[in-house]
Amino acid sequence: MRKSFDMSDERLSVVPPPASGKAENGPAPRRVKIGLALGAGAARGWAHIGVLRELEERGIFPDVIAGTSIGAVVGGCYAAGKLDQIEAFARSLTKRRVFALMDLSFSGMSLISGERLKTSLEHEVGGLLIEKLPIPFAAVATEVGTGHEIWLQRGALDLAIRASYALPGIFEPVRVGDRYLFDGALVNPVPVTVCRALGAEYVIAINMASDMMYRSKVVADQLAAATAGAPAEGPFGGRGSAALEVGLLPRFFERSAAGSAPNVASAMVDAFNIVQDRILRSRLAGDPPDAIVNARGDEIGMFDFHRAEQAIAMGRDAAKRALPTIFSHIPAAALSS
């Protein structure tokens, strides 16, 4: 189920002429309306920050943004003018702080309730409405039960972001209106189609799933020994996780030894990655982007959120590799706002 879109954005404009009022070499190139499709990818999604930084430095600023899962987190913060804040948060994460954010759920719907993440997100973007953002934005989520692809374009930004990253079995589904929603990666891992529906003429896809396939890594069990007996710090200096969480969560996310039967976490993560990979290939084949940034970094596991510095650098490198393709299709002069 998809909502209708307002295509009346006036930012598709002509580049202003020189100060003299006349163009030196004929008419100025028309301003191309650019869309960024920020894909899913769990912890490696911090690379979106590096991609956005590199594109900005090259004069590439999006007119519309669509994001799925971690792409909705970074894309929503960028659209709200909060990229500095989300980058500072990402760089502040340590293994201890990551697990301090993962509060156990006893509802029977998931492993993690997500209340601590919700509090952190509300601290930065609470009270912001999607329809009031400086840059048009949409987050992709999946409706529980029907499998409908839901494009969240109105209402609370923090709620839309939470719905988009609610990985089934890990986070509780998020209620939005009369629907329960979870991770949009199940239906549209890199939302190129959403950018086009928002009016983008040129879509740059940022793909965090390349090379990952179903080979993602997870946090090893050594964390239990490293943090045993010490209360975990919250992301902003507060005290957090109970001893039960410190012992249980690392074991849940530990990958099964080679050749042994998979544990619950390995089975869930591998199944999700396989499904996401197959859907991604199909969606990109059906509606390919005009340019794609593939962030390659298989050494960053699905739950390695504490490795933001490495992921951001990886994103910058990926964007640099894609620049020749981007500029071959868009005249540099047409990128200026």
Notes on the structure:
The protein has 337 residues and is an alpha/beta fold. The chain has one domain (34-214, 265-328): Cytosolic phospholipase A2 catalytic domain, CATH 3.40.1090.10. 37% of the residues lie in helices and 12% in strands. It is built from 11 helices and 8 strands. It has helices at 47-57, 70-79, 83-92, 95-101, 115-125, 157-165, 192-197, 222-227, 243-253, 264-286, 308-329; strands at 34-38, 64-68, 137-143, 149-152, 174-176, 179-183, 202-207, 291-294. Strands 1, 2, 3, 4, 5, 6, 7 and 8 form an 8-stranded mixed sheet that branches. Helix 2 (70-79) runs antiparallel to helix 6 (157-165). The radius of gyration is 20 Å and the shape is globular. It starts with 33 loop residues before the first strand and ends in an 8-residue tail after the last helix.
Structural class: alpha/beta
Dominant shape:
globular
Q: What's the number of helices?
A: 11
- For the record, the count of structural domains works out to 1
User: What profile does the largest beta sheet have?
Assistant: 8 strands, mixed
Question: In total, how many beta strands?
Answer: 8
- Tell me the name of the CATH homologous superfamily: Cytosolic phospholipase A2 catalytic domain
* CATH top-level class: Alpha Beta
Region (Disordered): 1-27
GO molecular function: hydrolase activity
InterPro entries: Acyl_Trfase/lysoPLipase, NTE, PNPLA_dom
Active site: 69 (nucleophile), 183 (proton acceptor)
List the helices and strands and how they pair.
Layout: E1 34-38, H1 47-57, E2 64-68, H2 70-79, H3 83-92, H4 95-101, H5 115-125, E3 137-143, E4 149-152, H6 157-165, E5 174-176, E6 179-183, H7 192-197, E7 202-207, H8 222-227, H9 243-253, H10 264-286, E8 291-294, H11 308-329
Helix pairs in contact: 1-11, 2-6
